[in-house]
Amino acid sequence: MEFKDKNYLPILVNDRVLTPDPTDEDGYNHSFEGTVKELGTDGYVIVEDGDGDCWCIEPERLEVLNP
């Protein structure tokens, strides 16, 4: 499965990404820059924040930084 960000750029493990502002369903409280840790088999991207917490986020909501 290929994952693409909101700008249709490919998302790869170890990419730096910008997350969106959270929705009511998200567990995080604000947008943040994070590192892609895993491309989930369920269609989500696992992103680690600066505190070491990991979040499942839909790839089309992310933005790859410095592609």
CATH C-level class is Mainly Beta
Mean of all residue-level pLDDT scores: 93
How many helices does DSSP assign? 0
Quaternary status: single chain
| CATH architectural label | Roll
Topology as H/E string?
EEEEE
By CATH, the topology is SH3 type barrels
Low-confidence stretches: none
Structure description:
The two termini are about 20 Å apart. The protein is about 0% helix and about 30% strand. The chain has a single domain, classed as SH3 type barrels. It has about 70 residues and is mainly β. A hairpin with a 5-residue loop joins strand 3 (about 45-50) and strand 4 (about 55). The chain contains no helices and five strands.
List keywords for this structure.
67 residues, mainly beta, SH3 type barrels, five-stranded antiparallel sheet, 5 strands
Short synopsis of the structure:
This protein is an all-beta fold.
Compile the SSE list and pairings.
Layout lengths: L15 E3 L14 E7 L5 E4 L5 E4 L5 E2 L3
Antiparallel strand pairs: 1-2, 1-5, 2-3, 3-4
